[in-house]
């Protein structure tokens, strides 16, 4: 049962629960009009303490497409945070108005903290360099729509593995599916944190670490690119030195398998040359659309709005 639960990290849900969300999302993709009043009378609070385009618009649009309404802010300076209110008090207050809260915050752990004080479900839309579970749902729906299964895949994640929260969430989640293995492709300075590597090892999955994208690409089912997370660097000089370390080009794509797919959570900076966009293996703009549908499914599940199934309503 997902009703009234929080989503803070992808492992909060079992594989079966994740699959239920994906199933509902695919149902919504097939006939979105059927779902356009499911959240009528419900309110989503969208609290963005950190910049966002896709994730905020994606959640807001998802709620509007379900017939619900949205309140919130995208600039914390316009909220009581600017007066010194704690996130705990904000959570208590806002959950008196809203039925569900979506929060993005630059500080790791904030979504978890809010979930302890809110009287409604809380969804983590990104907490610092930690986790971003709804991007993972987006990624899973993209993979499920392009590959026959979420299992037995060789997944290369490339770029800023140290600070990339989308990568932390995706790798943690996919390590829970049978037969997957990983190639962590990054410069030495931006290696995957040990706590993520430990989770992969605990699940009995293998990984290798390399800084050689060209050598690794030919063996992959999925290449997940990511930008170097400028806002999490202490030194601008270090960022400038590392920001263009990997650039995926048409030449590098020529080394990859015909059925490999390229994903990226976006925004892209320089890490994928625009010439790659025309390659049918490039799936990053499809991911954006999947993100909205999967968030519609998630909102429905956490609010318990899926209790009459589409089949029964036909
Ligand atoms: C990501 C994020 O915010 O972590 N973007 C997103 O949600 N689609 C990736 C990023 O900012 O690099």
Overall description:
With 314 residues, the chain is an alpha/beta fold. It folds into two domains: 10-132 and 288-309, 3-Layer(aba) Sandwich (Rossmann fold); 133-287, 3-Layer(aba) Sandwich (Rossmann fold), CATH 3.40.50.1370. Helices cover 38% and strands 14% of the residues. It is built from twelve helices and nine strands. It has helices at residues 15-30, 54-65, 87-97, 110-117, 133-146, 165-174, 194-202, 213-216, 236-242, 250-253, 284-302, 310-313; strands at 43-48, 69-73, 100-105, 122-127, 154-158, 181-185, 207-210, 222-225, 261-263. The strands form two sheets. The chain has a five-stranded parallel sheet with strand order 7-6-5-8-9, covered by helices on one side. A four-stranded parallel sheet has the order 2-1-3-4, sandwiched between helices. It is globular, with a radius of gyration of 19 Å. It starts with 14 loop residues before the first helix and ends with a helix. The mean pLDDT is 95. Bound molecules: N-carbamoyl-L-aspartate. Residues 54-55, 126, 132, 135, 165-166, 226-227, 265-267 line the site of N-carbamoyl-L-aspartate.
Summarize it:
This protein is an alpha/beta fold. Helices cover 38% and strands 14% of the residues. N-carbamoyl-L-aspartate (NCD) binds at residues 54-55, 126, 132, 135, 165-166, 226-227, 265-267.
């Amino acid at each position: 049962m997902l009703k009234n639960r929080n989503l803070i990290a992808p492992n909060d849900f079992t594989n079966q629960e994740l699959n239920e969300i994906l199933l509902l999302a695919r149902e919504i993709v097939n006939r979105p009009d059927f779902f356009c009043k499911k959240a009528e009378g419900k309110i989503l609070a969208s609290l963005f303490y950190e910049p966002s385009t896709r994730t905020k618009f994606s959640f807001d649009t998802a709620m509007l497409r379900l017939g619900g309404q949205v309140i919130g802010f995208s600039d914390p300076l316009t909220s009581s945070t600017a007066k010194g209110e704690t996130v705990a008090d904000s959570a208590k207050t806002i959950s008196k108005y809203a039925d569900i809260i979506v929060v993005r915050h630059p500080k790791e752990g904030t979504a978890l903290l809010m979930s302890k004080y809110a009287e409604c479900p809380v969804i983590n839309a990104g907490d610092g360099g930690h986790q971003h579970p709804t991007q993972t749902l987006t990624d899973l729906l993209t993979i499920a729509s392009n590959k026959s299964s979420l299992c037995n895949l060789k997944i290369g994640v490339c770029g800023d593995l140290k600070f990339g929260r989308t990568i932390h969430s995706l790798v943690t989640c996919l390590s829970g599916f049978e037969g997957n293995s990983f190639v962590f492709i990054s410069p030495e300075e931006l290696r995957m944190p040990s706590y993520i590597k430990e989770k992969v090892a605990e699940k009995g999955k293998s990984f290798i670490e390399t800084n050689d994208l060209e050598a690794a690409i030919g063996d992959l089912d999925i290449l997940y690119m990511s930008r170097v997370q400028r806002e999490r660097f202490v030194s601008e000089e270090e960022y400038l030195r590392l920001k263009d370390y990997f650039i995926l080009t048409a030449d590098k794509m020529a080394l990859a398998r015909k059925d490999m797919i390229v994903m990226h959570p976006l925004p892209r900076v320089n890490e994928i040359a625009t010439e790659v966009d025309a390659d049918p293996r490039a799936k990053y703009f499809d991911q954006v659309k999947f993100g909205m549908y999967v968030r519609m499914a998630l909102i429905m599940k956490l609010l318990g709005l899926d209790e009459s199934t589409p089949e029964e309503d036909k």
